[in-house]
Every structure is written in structure tokens, then in C-alpha cells.
Description:
The chain is an alpha/beta fold. It has two domains: 3-25 and 73-331, Metal-dependent hydrolases (TIM Barrel, Alpha-Beta Barrel); 27-69, no CATH class. It has helices at 3-10, 27-37, 56-67, 73-89, 109-130, 146-159, 182-190, 205-215, 230-238, 247-252, 264-269, 288-299, 303-316, 321-331, and strands spanning 14-20, 92-99, 133-141, 164-170, 194-199, 219-222, 242-245, 273-276. An eight-stranded parallel β-sheet has the order 1-2-3-4-5-6-7-8, with helices on both faces. Strand 2, helix 5 (109-130) and strand 3 form a beta-alpha-beta unit. The longest helix is centred in the middle third of the chain and has 22 residues, at 109-130. Hypoxanthine binds at residues 20, 23, 63, 170-171, 198, 249, 279-280.
Amino acid sequence: MDEDQIDRITRLxxxxxxxHHEGAAPPAFIRGLAQEKSVNLEGVFTSNGxxxxxxxVHFLSVYEAxxxxxxxxxxxxxxxxxxxxxxxxxxxxxxxxxxxxxxCGGGDVGAWREYLxxxxxxxxxxxxxxxxxxxxxxxxxxxxGPDKAKATAxxxxxxxxxxxxxxxxxxxxxxxxxxxxxxxxxxxREAGLHLTAHAGEWGGAASVHDAxxxxxxxxxxxxxxxxxxxxxxxxxxxxxxxxxxxxxSNVVLNVYPNLAVHPIDTLRERGVKVxxxxxxxxxxxxxxxxxxxxxxxxxxWDEAVFAELNDTAARAAFCDDDxxxxxxxxxxxx
Length: 334
Ligand code: HPA
Ligand code: ZN
């Protein structure tokens, strides 16, 4: 593949479906807030100024420590501006971000509304300035347990609409079972929200079956371990379940030792609807452009493959159909 082709691929307009809001915070932004608020973030950063973590569970605790400096709706407005500037610089035209009321007001509906209002205002401003469209997925945190998830689902149900478009679950996939969260997912579904769940990143194929069967999700965060169960692969294809695959995240967290052995290409060839996202880009030293570059180089994917991925992502987006039509229009090559 020549340089021109690579260059065109990395600059394609992109749709990103799997992004953790705090996980997208540039480390310098978090460090700046910590200084302003005199919060001690010892152990959060490497000597090079990146985020420091050893493995997934340690990553989650560093993530929560970094998030502890975000203490007000105004902080989240500033975060949203920083995140969307970076996404827009990577040609992302539409993005869905995971937001957790646990971090935004401690699960209280009134406080959550204030955070959400500030985030939405900042997103509207970014849309005016950079053309990028953002929508939110309220996300409960698995290792905080099913009771906290119920409070989160209530926040989601109370604010469901044309901006909060989905409900999901993140956090430590090895804690509890999807079934434990069925009540919260039922509440979110009844409020009209679309559903996604992290599964098959740390858990095996059974965890993906469980997320589909017990939570009724139409998208799976990661889901890559489905590749070990070809009956599950067929189920994903038949039910048109979309995978939010985050290849760079999987390599940094050692789900796979390198991209060449990552199953995204095989899943795609078997007919699974795959999409590409960054997860927590500065934590994993990645960006959407970087992901596209790596995938093009490793698997020889051309522009047509990436156009198909983005089309899949736009069609699987949880937004309303008018917004989807606008996004599809932006994906048309000029
Ligand atoms: N995976 C699971 N939970 C998370 C992540 C992630 O990448 N980021 C923040 N919470
Ligand atoms: Zn994730």
C-alpha cells in the first residue's frame, strides 16, 4: 500500500461508537485540573506524562483516580471540549461517549441532570465549531455492583431522549454476571434506550452469549472472544449484533500480543458487523487515525473496507434517523 493510499485512509471521515468520556481525557488536562484543585495524583502518571498502569484492573483504578479531579459540571464541560477537539482532529464526524452518573453527581438524578446539561452545551458548541456530533450512552459500572447500577439506570431513564440514546455497562468484566444487571437494562429498555454491554474482552464467548441473552443488547463492547465459538459467530451474524472493536486497547492491555493475531479481520470475513473505536485513547497511546493506519498496514484493508466499517457504525449508531442521515451524508466521500 503506497503512502498516498495510507494518507487517504487515515483522513477518512469516521464514526466512533465506543469511547469512555473520562478515558479520553488528555493527561495534561487531568494534571492541570489536579493542580488547580490541589489533588494529589501520585502514581497516576508515568515520568513521560502518560497514564501509568500495569494491567486492566490497575488501569481501572488509575482511571478512577484520574477521574476524581473532575468534580463539577463545569469540569465535565471543559473535558467534553477537550475530547471533542481531539476527536474532530481525527476526522471523527459522529461519536458516542460512555457517561457514568456515578462520576457525575454520585448517582443522584438532580445532580446528573446538571452534569448532563453542561456536557450537552459543550457538545453543541463543539458541533458548531468543528461539525462533530456527540451522543451519550449512560453506563453503569460492573464492579460497583447491581444496586449502584439501578440508580444509574434511573438517571438514564429520566434523561433518555434524543441526546442520551443508550445504556451500557463497563468496568471489571470478571465481577458478577450480566444477569445481575438485567433489572437495570430492563428499566433502560422501557425508557426507549438502545443497549450495549462490554463482554468478551476479558470473559470468554459465554460472556457474550450472556450479554445478548440476559440483557438483550444489540451491540457488544469488544466481543472479540466470540471468535473461539463459531456457533456464537453465526449468532452474531444472524442477529446482526454489532461489535464495537477497540484493537489498540486490546493490544496495550494484552488481550492479544499484537495486532496481526487480533481476530477483527477474521470476524469481519465471517460476516460479523465490526466497527473500530479507541476505548480510552490517551491511556492506550492511540487515536482514530492511528487505529486506521495500523489496521491498513496490518491487514491490507483499503478505503472500501473502512467505508464499509463506517457505514456499519452509522447504521448501528443509537441516534435518531434524522441524525443518522446527516452522519451518512458526512461519510460520503467528496
Ligand atoms: N473497559 C471497561 N471499563 C472501562 C473502560 C474500559 O476500557 N474504561 C473505563 N471503564
Ligand atoms: Zn470500553
